[in-house]
Specification:
The complex is a heterotrimer. Chain B is mainly alpha-helical. Chain B has eleven helices and two strands; from the N terminus they run ααααββααααααα. The chains are: A alpha/beta, B mainly alpha, C mainly alpha. Chains B and C meet through helix 4, helix 9 and helix 11 of B and helix 5, helix 12 and helix 14 of C.
């Protein structure tokens, strides 16, 4: 299988604090990758570097055959990287449909009736179709998270980064979101999932990478990761 | 022309002025630098403090005394202000940027216009034993009123710096700007902490206002140029840096003093606003900022 | 197309008014100022209402428009339309410049920078002999009245045309891709960037358009007053009006600033003439604070709520 994302020797510092030290990561096309690590380990920083929210890091990042190291976030989105946010960031003055029309307009270039139909299809797939014309600041938590994913989908991504999409959700809600992510992967989209809910990570991921204090401490299948003493030490302490 | 003597004198005066500017900006450093509140009404409250001092001075009290007496009053005003700002703007998360800014801008104008309606546009001054005469050392004259302001300013800055680094509440205030979550875990209520911080910021303004009217005459429209001076100091220092405020104040004071001596007093606003723009363009995090 | 129809009708009506005999000249004096505020409020809203970036330095852009007109008039006897065009272009350039300097930073830094520009430019103009420096410059109006009876009537109509043009531009921005992107930036700049919106470019465009329109509003002023001087041109009160009118009227739609400007500028003409200028600033300030706290969506929002509740 080919590599879709290659993160090489990435170092990110904030003043005197090193958030990521020499991170190397390869993600294969169509893969389901889980990214775990205790709070403060650098997961969101890594995601921010990949998505382009930060562009002042050392090292290089290649995506889908091209070097994206210096590209700004909106340019990376146009190349096919989409992400959802840990705390949902809806365009609160807009309806759900209008939220989706933004990436359609700016990534795809059109926001006419054809795109509105496509948007409805996406919403249908997530169970949000009946909320299409509701203002987004009136959605429930789980609906907001689904809309985050729907909006990311509207950008027609090749790689989707889901940043703790299930944080704070209850049992069945977690399953709903998980099912959506599985469905998206079946469409051929590579997915990186950051999650604290271990069950979900284990169920979903083909491969898991564990981050601690800015370094990758191990990689492997879910089963091997769980048994790894380094990982246990990172989460539970000595 | 340029004589070393004149530049030296301007620099000395600039040091006194600079310390004064630092003290005047301390409140903003806390409110905007630490708490991230878009407190553009800070200079207006400064002038308000000056006018209250003016009123109290009519009873014969020493202006510094007036300033100190006003501090608890302003503390309460500050707490009220923040409480109101928090309930109305910060809590409801959408679009706070525009509304918060518009709110404080509106307040600044309201304060300025009320002052004009009540006191008129003429300049007001206060009288005290140390206003009017100067200390003479060698060939140089240091107006006493500047020395008094300098002394108060230095004390204020020192007290606040110690407060923020040594006391629990002080350190909590410094922390709340950076990590509310951690503060909550420590059992402290972030909203209460921010309230106290804002109260301190506003009460400092009372004393700073007293200093302002000691240093020179005051008129209602002065809040406009002080937007430049105070924001220049805060941006130059870097958000969140208390000790940086003193250094930044000195930089502004000395620069302004030298420019005014060379080109004339009408260039004063251009100095603070110009430095401000320069910093924003070149190094927005300031000299010491995070 | 409805818009084009009604605005043409309006312009025709105002044209008729301007050439009619027997109408008190004061109507045109005051009308010019009201229309000027329509342009200013509309211009401010393109950046402030649509994108969420608050410009406190409105007088700087007005002044660039006005002083460019003066320089063009004094140096090459430029006709009014050239003055307006020149003023708009330079003010737009100022908007672009301030944007380039500060739009990568947080919103409040942009706002503070706009105040800084006012004072820096005022200091520069104060020391510029050619345009009269601090004492100002008297100007003689040219005799070119087109077909109007008085110069003021002509200026009134010109300002009416400018008002319609600016509202048309605001309407176009609002309904286009640009408007969608600006709204996304205002709601969540991070999410907008990740949804493919080139946030910096869009903000710069809005900043330039907004600045240019404010310059256009300022350019006819020297001819209107037959005089120009810095302290009234650079008066910071323009800012409270230019931001109060859209916020009170409603920032989400182009008609909000129009409503706000018409109401408040007319009030201003009444209060300033009968009582005092300061009182008018107070009224606008208090209304602004009240609306921002209680009715953040402005008059438009109130109308919307009232319509919904009476269903």
């Amino acid at each position: 299988m080919e590599t879709i994302l290659e993160v090489s020797n990435v170092i990110k510092q904030f003043g005197g604090f090193t958030a990521l030290s020499d991170v190397n990561l390869r993600v294969l096309k169509g893969e389901r990758l889980g990214l775990i690590g205790p709070n403060g380990s650098g997961k969101t920083t890594l995601i921010n570097c990949i998505s382009g929210a930060f562009t002042d890091y050392q090292g290089s990042i290649r995506f889908d055959g091209g070097d994206i190291t210096t590209l700004k976030a909106h340019q990376r989105t146009k190349r096919g990287i989409a992400r959802s946010f840990q705390i949902p960031r809806p365009f609160s003055s807009m309806t759900v449909m209008e939220n989706l029309l933004v990436p359609f307009a700016f990534v795809g270039g059109k926001d006419g009736p054809v795109q509105q139909k496509e948007a409805m299809d996406i919403l249908q797939g997530m169970g949000l179709a009946d909320k299409a014309f509701v203002q987004s600041n009136q959605l429930s938590q789980v609906e907001l998270r689904k809309m985050e994913l729907a909006r990311a989908m509207a950008a027609k991504p090749k790689l989707l980064i889901s940043d703790e999409a299930m944080a704070g959700l209850a049992g069945t809600e977690v399953d709903e979101v998980l099912e959506i992510l599985f469905d998206l992967n079946k469409l051929g989209i590579t997915i990186i999932m950051i999650e604290h809910i271990m069950q979900a990570v284990m169920k979903f991921s083909q491969r898991v990478v564990c981050l601690d204090a800015g370094k990758i401490i191990c990689e492997g299948t879910p089963e091997t990761i769980v048994k790894n003493p380094e990982v246990q030490r990172a989460y539970l302490g000595d | 022309m340029f004589s070393v003597d004149l530049i030296f004198e301007a620099t000395l005066f600039g040091i006194l002025l600079g310390c004064f500017y630092a003290a005047v900006s301390l409140g903003l450093s806390v409110a905007f630098g630490l708490l991230d509140v878009p407190y553009v009404a800070h200079p207006a409250l400064l002038i308000l403090g000056s006018y209250f001092t003016f009123l109290l001075c009519k009873t014969g009290m020493d202006p510094i005394m007036c300033g100190v007496l006003l501090m608890p009053v302003f503390y309460l005003i500050g707490i009220g202000f923040y409480r109101f700002y928090y309930e109305t703007f910060e809590k409801r998360s959408t679009d706070t940027g525009v509304r918060g800014l518009a709110f404080f801008f509106g307040m600044a104008f309201i304060i300025e216009v009320c002052l004009i309606l009540v006191f008129g546009v003429d300049q007001r001054t206060v009288a005290a034993s140390y206003i009017g005469s100067s200390l003479e050392i060698g060939d140089y004259r240091f107006p006493y009123r500047m020395l008094v302001a300098f002394g108060i300013a230095l004390t204020l800055t020192l007290v606040l710096t110690i407060y923020f680094s040594k006391t629990f509440t002080g350190r909590a205030i410094k922390a709340v700007g950076q990590d509310e979550g951690a503060l909550r875990l420590m059992g402290a209520n972030p909203v209460k902490i921010k309230q106290i911080a804002f109260g301190i910021a506003t009460s400092v303004n009372a004393l700073a206002g007293a200093m302002l009217i000691i240093v020179g005459p005051v008129e209602p429209a002065m809040d406009r140029i002080y937007i430049g001076r105070t924001f220049c100091v805060v941006v130059l220092a870097g958000l969140g840096s208390m000790s940086g405020t003193l250094v930044a104040g000195l930089v502004l004071g000395i620069t302004e003093s030298i420019v005014m001596m060379t080109f004339g007093a009408s260039w004063a606003p251009a100095v603070s606003f110009g430095l401000l723009l320069l910093m924003l363009g070149v190094r927005p995090q300031g000299l010491f900022g995070r | 197309m409805k818009f084009a129809f009604y605005s043409s009708l309006l312009l025709l009506g105002l044209l008729g008014l301007s050439v009619m005999g027997g109408v008190n000249e004061y109507v045109f004096f005051a009308g010019f100022v009201v229309l000027q505020f329509v342009v200013l409020a509309t211009a401010w809203n393109i950046l402030g209402g649509y994108a969420g970036y608050v410009n406190f330095g409105v007088p700087a852009f007005i002044a660039v428009g006005a002083y460019t007109a003066v320089v063009l008039f004094k140096s090459i006897s430029a006709p009014l339309l050239v003055q307006i065009l020149g003023g708009g272009i330079l003010a737009g350039a100022l908007g672009l410049g301030v944007g380039l300097l500060t739009l990568k930073l947080r919103g409040i830094f942009f706002s503070i920078a706009t105040v800084a520009v006012v004072f820096i430019l005022e200091t520069a103009v104060n020391n510029w002999r050619y345009v009269g420096g601090a004492t100002g410059l008297q100007l003689t109006r040219p005799q070119d009245l087109w077909f109007f009876d008085s110069y003021v009537r002509m200026l009134f109509f010109v300002m009416a045309v400018l008002a319609v043009i600016s509202v048309a531009i605001a309407r176009y921005v609002q309904d286009s891709f640009l408007g969608r992107g600006l709204r996304a930036v205002r709601d969540s700049e991070e999410a907008a960037e990740c949804s493919g919106v080139p946030t910096l470019k869009i903000k710069l465009i809005a900043c330039t358009i907004s600045g240019a329109l404010m310059g256009i509003a300022g350019a006819p002023m020297p001819m209107y007053l037959s005089y120009i001087e810095p302290s009234s041109t650079f008066n910071l009160s323009y800012s409270i009006y230019a931001l109060g009118m859209p916020i009170i009227g409603g920032t989400s739609h182009w008609i909000g600033p129009v409503i706000g400007a018409l109401l408040l500028a007319t009030l201003q003409q009444i209060v300033t003439v009968t009582i005092s200028n300061e009182l008018n600033v107070l009224i606008v300030g208090v209304l602004l604070v009240l609306f921002v706290v209680i009715a953040p969506e402005g008059i438009l929002g109130l109308i919307k709520r009232w319509k919904q509740s009476s269903k």
